[in-house]
């Protein structure tokens, strides 16, 4: 098969790494890719939202399967565009329709979907700028802390947890009136704060059948002890001790099944990945949010644990034959530590040469914000630069294997969190 993979982050390098292991993979193209994907596939310099150029490439390169990594082209309707184009309508794509992608593209849409389908989630109300007084009055009646979410896509930064009423009111005005997150906050969802332990559950579905992939816990804040600004993710661990068999059974019955059935019942075409952000509240799952693709950096911890042919899984999703696929998962632990440019998630400098550690069998290195300069040197070109995944028979050994390799990887002003997985490690004691 000739495969086209869209995206340029650590998630896409992990996808590419897994796809090329399949004997069914003849040729893999990545648009636009990074320095890591360039080593195992052919990078093509196109925009992931240039739909006509992508369609042309599908025809010219005889692509058999399209795999969409990030959410933006999905929310903008790429899958519908390809399906409605006579030249690409027969090429299966892994990714939901534009309507399906609204589960991530609009927090209000996803909350209403959960409500209609009896999926456990936090209590909420949605407000627009002309309802600012109603929103402020609503805040006065809520218990603290309270959560404010920009309705649209805000690059993972549109969620605020407010500890005081004054902060909540000020933030609501910032979001609705001062457009703190641009058009993304033209609507704001005010939501009950859920206490518990957060985790990510990943589901592959062809719209009829589904497979639940390994779960993970990620670390979103820049500072150790989960302090500082939100980022795209600083690390992840899989599996997690608080997602035992009994809890995961509840997740399947109360969340996964009603979600997949709800999509079918409401005629929302969905062939792709569903990333369910969950809170374990005293042993019961509550949905924080849906994302319509795999998470990053969780993918870098989840995919190394999948032992069955990953391309067959993707093919099953795209072609609607997922029910025949047998998912095999390794009992090993995988822990991912993200190395970022100093200053991220605010301003940072690019172009520093990167010195990599030697390859080993206990870890895998995934590229994110990397490229090669005119001299052929590997350099940092983004905020999140590398994701290093350690593997082991225990969480402790997986963490040691990840950090051993991180410590031998260098560039100027590189930063990483040294406490990834430590909180989960304590739960094993």
Automatic annotation (TrEMBL):
The yes or no answer to whether the keyword Coiled coil is present is: no
Pathway per the UniProt entry: Purine metabolism; IMP biosynthesis via de novo pathway; N(1)-(5-phospho-D-ribosyl)glycinamide from 5-phospho-alpha-D-ribose 1-diphosphate: step 2/2
Q: Does the keyword Isomerase apply?
A: no
Q: Which UniProt keywords apply?
A: ATP-binding, Ligase, Nucleotide-binding, Purine biosynthesis
Source organism's superkingdom? Answer: Bacteria
> Which Enzyme Commission numbers does its entry carry?
6.3.4.13
Give the family, as the similarity comment puts it: Belongs to the GARS family.
Looking up PANTHER family in the UniProt record yields: PHOSPHORIBOSYLAMINE--GLYCINE LIGASE, PHOSPHORIBOSYLAMINE--GLYCINE LIGASE, CHLOROPLASTIC
Q: What is this protein called?
A: Phosphoribosylamine--glycine ligase
